[in-house]
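Exercise: predict the fold of this chain.
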Amino acid sequence: MNGAVAYHSGKFAEENVAQLYLASGQEVIARRWRGRSGEIDVIVRDGEQLIFIEVKKSRSHAAAAEHLSLRQIQRIYQTASEFLGSQPDGQDSLVRFDVALVDSVGRIEILENAFAA
């Protein structure tokens, strides 16, 4: 897949994931939020909780999951921490980290609390 196709495919996957969260009554507050440490694909508010979502697209959900590295997880934590600096409760905010796996036909699988130990 060339760069332009991958970019648009990823952007389309992120939009579909955002729509899924919206359809379940949650508020999408940011898309492709960029901080000094990196980017968060989608940020959602569910009541008092903020949900940071990493979208991974590949031919299958399993293949998409394999694209998430420890280094990316650390970058997501750092970037989320930057975002929390702009929130009223700061680092004390209630947060969750989800991974949205998108396969080649657009099916979405959400892994809630994907980084929980």
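Check your answer against the key: The two ends are 34 Å apart (CA to CA).
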